[in-house]
Amino acid sequence: MSAKPANLKSEILKLLKEDEEFRYAVAGLIGLKEILERLNRHEEELIKLRRDMTEGFKRHDEELAKLRKDMMEGFKRYEEELIRLRKDMTEGFKRHDEILERHAAEIARLREDMNAGFRRHDEILKRHEEELIKLREDMNRGFELVNRHIAAIGARWGIMSEEAFREGLRGLLEKELGLKVKRWTAFDETGIVFGYPSQVEIDIAIKDTKLILIEVSSHIRRSDVYQFKRKAELYQRKTGRKPDRLLMIAPYAEDKAIEASRLLGIEIYTKV
């Protein structure tokens, strides 16, 4: 049996060498087989590719479905946040409007209180002004009376001392103006008034709770005005109370003294 295959093989090889038609037929058969095998492999590859593509499309569809789900959930959360934000903004605007209303009411009340305060202030100023006018009128009437009485003093002026003149005029002020004049004395250890430590005297009077410092002299010079101002500063420093008025009274005052008194807020009366 082994000889037959060998002979068959020899015959086939001989035919392949000698018979061209046979050789082409065998070659065709061999090529067809390769083609069929390749087609089978290609078909398998196509099946595998189709399966892979199907699985890829399936995964792609799943990913798209998941992405769509995530997007819908995201849109839902975004819409919920917008709703909460709109609600918070609405409540915030409501609170803001309430605060503005309260502030407007507070401002209105404050304006009413301020207007009422200004009215009270104006009334107080008006009363003070009326009191000052009345006091000035009383003072002027008093000084007119003093003017009539001072004539007697003037007749004797040539022989009267400065201190006697002052005492006489103080008496007239008390009698005619109702001013209780007192002598205030203090030691000026720092030399505010005269520039060196010394004893300082000044007349004080109380009129309708107002403190008045009075300087009575026969002749007022500019230096007297400045000296009187320093006495007032010493009084305020010693007592802690600021005088309401500063008065200088004399039959005569120099022009420069009157000018200085205006600058320093001192009243000078010379009609006596």
Question: What is this structure, in a nutshell?
Answer:
This protein is α/β, with parallel strands linked by helices. The chain has a domain of 139 residues: Trna Endonuclease, Chain: A, domain 1 (3-Layer(aba) Sandwich). Helices cover 72% and strands 12% of the residues.
What would you note in describing this structure?
- With 272 residues, this protein is of the alpha/beta class.
- The chain has a domain at 131-269: Trna Endonuclease, Chain: A, domain 1.
- It is built from 5 helices and 5 strands.
- The protein has helices spanning 3-18, 20-155, 162-177, 222-239, 255-264; strands at 182-188, 198-207, 210-216, 245-249, 267-269.
- It has a 5-stranded mixed beta sheet, sandwiched between helices.
- Helix 1 (3-18) packs across helix 2.
- The N and C termini lie far apart (180 Å).
Largest sheet geometry: 5 strands, mixed
CATH classification, class level of the domain at 131-269: Alpha Beta
Poorly predicted residue ranges: 155-160
Q: What Rg, in angstroms, do the CA atoms define?
A: 63 Å
Q: Topology, pairings included?
A:
Elements lengths: L2 H16 L1 H136 L6 H16 L4 E7 L9 E10 L2 E7 L5 H18 L5 E5 L5 H10 L2 E3 L3
Parallel strand pairs: 3-4, 4-5
Antiparallel strand pairs: 1-2, 2-3
Helix pairs in contact: 1-2, 2-3, 4-5
